[in-house]
Design a protein that fits this description.
alpha/beta; 10% strand; globular; disordered N terminus
């Protein structure tokens, strides 16, 4: 795969970890043309054709104490319905303990194959000797998606995915879904294939999008067309598929975040859409870790704003989780 087609869009990936995922998920959405005249995946999962169904999802949990506090508040007091954890990170034990007390939480794994920050870093759980192509001179995961794509083999990707799942299982953490930190698992078709096959093997839903592509540009939709056939394969293997994805909320800055979220929610099309946030409650050290500290605080503010909750109720938006998607998929039928 020629990564240069997406290089100009990597600005901001290191800060937010989502610019790249928007491009590569667009590849999966190249299959949308084939599906657009058919039912939405929300309909296939049992909702009505007119239903707007939303997962409000918090990424980067376990990365820091601030990240954990934000996710707990966003799901406990706010409207967020789901979060995913970065298993190689040092604050995972805290969120694992929280999950033992809150086992009904929708908790996925934010599979981390990069370690993007300058001063605050982590290494692979599989160990350097098992995945040498995933580590840099410091023994940490590479800073960027491009570095991983240039150095790591699909076998190493597979080993690290499985090591992170094993860590969660060892901690007794429920795994409701799998997604990809900074979109690394979408960087090469061979990576995505390993990602998909692990999800299918373990019957854990993975992040894959099938129809609307409302929030992605035309070039993003067609960037990696080779992944398109996986949509039907994943569905027919018994896993749910999203209709749409909004990845750029954190990058919208700090001002009027509740209003910005309300605007996004007002314009959603029928189907199942996931909106990704990095809601955090910054502690004193958090600005040292990331320059996006205040943007992440603003994400939390949006998810806990009473006006957002009121809009969701007034518009009749249905909030859901990955756990519910999987339960509904078990009752749904295969695609022809």
């Amino acid at each position: 795969m020629k990564l240069k087609i997406a290089a100009h869009r990597l600005v901001g990936v290191r800060q937010f970890g989502l610019g790249f995922v928007a491009i590569v998920l667009g590849a999966v959405l190249s299959a949308a043309t084939a599906f657009s005249a058919e039912k939405t995946f929300a309909e296939r999962l049992g909702w009505k054709a007119s239903d707007v169904v939303v997962i409000l999802h918090v990424d980067d949990v376990g990365m820091s104490h601030s990240s954990n506090l934000g996710a707990i508040e966003a799901t406990g007091k706010g409207v967020a319905t789901s979060f995913s954890m970065m298993m190689p990170c040092p604050w995972v034990p805290e969120i694992a303990r929280y999950l033992k007390e809150h086992p009904k939480a929708d908790s996925g794994l934010h599979l981390a194959l990069t370690s993007e920050w300058r001063l605050y870093r982590w290494g692979p759980l599989a160990g350097k000797s098992q995945v040498p192509g995933l580590v840099d001179a410091e023994g940490c995961l590479w800073h960027t998606v491009q570095q991983v794509a240039a150095k790591a083999s699909p076998d190493e990707i597979d080993r690290e995915i499985r090591a992170q799942i094993d860590r969660a299982e060892t901690l007794g953490v429920p795994i409701t879904h799998l997604d990809s930190h900074m979109g690394t698992l979408f960087a090469r078709p061979e990576y995505f294939e390993r990602f998909a096959r692990v999800g299918i093997e373990k019957q854990i839903p993975i992040l894959v999008v099938g129809t609307n592509a409302t929030h992605l540009s035309p070039d993003e939709r067609s960037a990696l067309a080779t992944l398109g056939p996986w949509v039907k394969k994943i569905w027919n293997a018994g896993l749910p598929v999203l209709d749409d994805l909004f990845t750029g909320f954190t990058r919208l800055g700090t001002e009027k975040k509740p209003e910005k979220l309300m605007e996004v929610l007002k314009n959603l099309k029928p189907g199942v859409t996931e909106i990704i946030f990095h809601a955090s409650q910054p502690t004193e050290d958090f600005p040292i870790i990331t320059g996006s500290s205040e943007a992440r605080r603003a994400d939390l503010k949006a998810l806990t704003d009473s006006r957002v909750k009121k809009l969701i109720q007034e518009r009749g938006i249905i909030l859901t989780t990955w756990k519910e998607l999987m339960e509904r998929r078990k009752k749904a039928v295969a695609m022809d």
